[in-house]
Amino acid sequence: MNRPAHFGKSRFALMSIAAMFPDAPLATLLVVDDVPGNLTVLGELLRDAGYQVKAANSGRAALRYAAQHPQPDLILLDVMMPEMDGYQVLACLRADPATRFIPVIFLTALNDIQNEERGLEQGAADYIAKPFLPTLVLARVRTQLEAKRARDWLRNQNAFLETEVTRRVAENDLIQRVSIRALAHLAEIRDPETGNHILRTQSYVSTLAMRLKDHPRFAAFLTERSIELLARSAPLHDIGKVGIPDHILLKPGPLTPEEWAIMKTHSQIGADAIQQAEIDVKETVPFLIFAKEIARWHHEKWDGSGYPDGLAGDAIPVSARLMALADVFDALISVRVYKPAMSFDQARDIIAAGRGVHFDPDMTDAFLTGFDEFQAIAQRYHGD
Predict the structure, then answer these.
(1) Domains of the chain and any CATH numbers
(2) Could you read off the pLDDT of 156-165 as tens digits, one per residue?
């Protein structure tokens, strides 16, 4: 145990020293020492300097006080104490998230550089050797409190900045989603009978991608991030229909070969519009890469008989293959100006017949295996 500290100063002298620090903040200090005399003398010095002081006569008591409200702004901790020494107390303080950032000044009568290094390595902020010099104690305390205030300010600023960044990212994300939905509705509003087509196809694509994410052919591509971007891109698949004349887009019957040729240009129109948006912003936007693929190639077929480029098999981007199946399924079960809606059983049979002809075989299998889930999506977004 340590001997009581001898200041060799009168109470009047201590008050004079405290007066040297007129701007000392009203901070809470915890003094920990197993010798009552040390607690009394050091406590008086700090109170006279304008601090709130708590005292603990053991390491376990110190840990209790450190966790109580209001928490101390600074702990002055004796090293040599029975049962639980200062090093053990410091280790416990640093291990607890609630007390991890409270600065600790070690109080010791030891004049050993190794003990000082040990304490600093464990996270002590400073050392004050006994017998204490009052001016030194107050100066060290004030320095550590100022440093703590600076750290707390920076921590609060960082927390504020992180919150602000999160808020702005979320805001930008919302703006992006709303913009995509608005653009998609521009195409959809041209054809009022499509109802919630973009919501359904977006959900089909996301669900089908999730069912394929562990498949050996698709695992490397269908990460959580790419699936998110695919779902975000899906509503833009028919954006090119804004460029198709109404007399063709809304014709209540079969199209002539000339009209069909014009109708097929919507995939090229959509892809070109998205590419121009990329050029305008002079920056690559990840989801627009998928959006452009989907818009241009979602009418390609596995056997190469689709349009606009006659791509076949794996030459068709995964994004467009997913969209092709989702788009056809929704078209089959929906009313169009040129046809009534089919039943779910009829649509399932047509999708199954298109395996390896219109659609990627493995994607078709995943769709058929989870057909109940896709039917539920269609029913959830049924109607206007």
Answers:
(1) 11-160 (3.40.50.2300), 193-380 (1.10.3210.10)
(2) 888 888 888 8
